[in-house]
TrEMBL record:
Residues 366-386 are annotated as: Disordered. This is DgyrCDS2338. Keywords: Methyltransferase, S-adenosyl-L-methionine, Transferase. Coiled coil: none annotated. It comes from Dimorphilus gyrociliatus. It comes from the Eukaryota. GO terms for biological process: methylation; negative regulation of gene expression, epigenetic. SMART domains: SET. Transmembrane segments: none annotated. It holds the Pfam family SET. GO terms for molecular function: histone H4K20 methyltransferase activity.
Length: 386
């Protein structure tokens, strides 16, 4: 049945849990799989600050030029090669009731069938529990954002709208395997010192908005803690940009050398201006829960990486090295900069953010930190923290 797949899900009893293994040789640069998230959601402040994106797939709704004008604060800015912009406004739709905007009828229909039916009424009423929930969240979770409470509401709606709600609940639970203590520790980290108070408020608004007697365990305090942990720890960041997609498209054009140079210069100038005006906040940002991706373990020498080649929430896993048949497919939970740090630093970041002690190939073969090229950086880091 799964004859064409390049990977296989396995389960390791040695504490590692789920893992993904290559079923065949996968050359560097090849796609291992693509998947849509079980659920995704744009961040609350990001949306409020007019980073307009499809309410379902997070594809940007501004054209590349509109996007560049807004982010450079320059209404006169004009982009060449407008046909390279992937935003087609004629296809955009809007929910008549709650005004949610979509990139296409397909996205609107899919959202409605998966979770929006149950949330729409509440989203259109400012005094609803769902909107109160979002206020609580926005006031306790300022940018840079890592997750949005609406993701939990969507998750619960998706469970309740599913043909078999209990099965769908199990699917979400399969993302987490922490002890209650670990969860509590994590939620503390996510919400800060008032975590217990915020968690109680979140729980009460979620009950008010979406309670279902058949699924009562979802609505206990422990259930809320589990869901907070789930969105905070397992949510994969998603970033989309119509200007970014336009840049990628024009860079692929066959142009005379002098035109290419002029275009590169224009792009550099625009990015520079954007950075001046908006700092690093250039993308529509959000997060999603991806079930295959969640089976990939971390390694400090990964052989695969996550990409978003379609300018929406569809995730693609790509081999960054040749992968032999039978080899485990591993990604890095650390960014490139963190990956270059010493073993001690890497392990500390992973322990703090993901609560595991890394035992990857690199960590088990790395010598003492003294021999590590980045040990100087680590010292200065420690000084900064003190
Ligand atoms: Zn869409
Ligand atoms: Zn609606
Ligand atoms: Zn490691």
């Amino acid at each position: 049945m799964e004859g064409n797949l390049r990977y296989e899900k396995q389960y390791s009893e040695s504490g590692k849990g789920k893992l993904l293994v290559a079923r065949c040789f996968i050359p560097k640069g090849a796609e291992i799989f693509s998947e849509e998230p079980l659920i995704s959601c744009q961040f609350a402040w990001n949306k409020l600050y007019k980073y307009k994106a499809c309410d379902h797939c997070m594809k940007p709704l501004e054209t590349a030029e509109e996007n560049a004008k807004r982010l450079t604060n320059d209404p006169e800015l004009a982009l060449p090669f407008k046909e390279q912009c992937s935003v087609t406004k004629e296809r955009h739709t809007q929910c008549q009731k709650c005004q949610a905007e979509y990139c296409s009828q397909e996205c609107q229909t899919q959202a409605y069938q998966l979770y929006h039916r149950m949330l729409c009424d509440m989203l259109s009423s400012p005094s609803s529990s769902l909107n109160k929930l979002q206020e609580i969240w926005k006031n306790s979770h300022y940018p840079p954002e890592t997750c949005n409470i609406l993701l939990i509401a969507r998750m619960i709606a998706r469970i309740r709208q599913a043909e078999n709600p209990k099965l769908m609940f199990q699917e979400f639970l399969s993302f987490v395997h922490d002890t209650s203590d670990q969860e509590q520790q994590y939620v503390h980290k996510l919400l800060g010192n008032q975590f217990s108070e915020i968690q109680t408020m979140v729980n009460s608004e979620l009950r008010e908005a979406l309670f279902d007697e058949d699924l009562s365990e979802i609505f206990s305090i422990e259930g809320t803690q589990k869901f907070l942990c789930l969105i905070g720890r397992n949510g994969q960041g998603v970033g989309t940009s119509s200007f970014g997609t336009w840049v990628k498209n024009v860079e692929d054009l066959e142009l005379p050398e002098s035109d290419k140079t002029a275009l590169d210069l224009l792009i550099d100038q625009i990015y520079e201006k954007m950075n001046e005006v908006n700092g690093h906040f250039l993308n529509c940002e959000g997060s999603g829960l991806y079930s295959l991706h969640s089976c990939c373990n971390h390694s400090c020498t990964p052989n695969a990486e996550v990409q978003f080649p379609y300018g929406n929430h569809t995730l693609q896993l790509v081999a960054t090295k040749d992968i032999e048949s039978g080899e485990e497919i591993e990604i890095s939970y650390l960014d490139d900069c963190q990956l270059r740090r010493s073993k001690a630093t890497r392990q500390q970041i992973l322990l703090e953010n993901y609560m595991f002690l890394c035992q990857c190939n690199k960590c088990t073969t790395d010598q003492d930190d003294e021999t590590d090229e980045s040990s100087d950086d680590d010292e200065s880091d420690e000084n900064m923290e003190n």
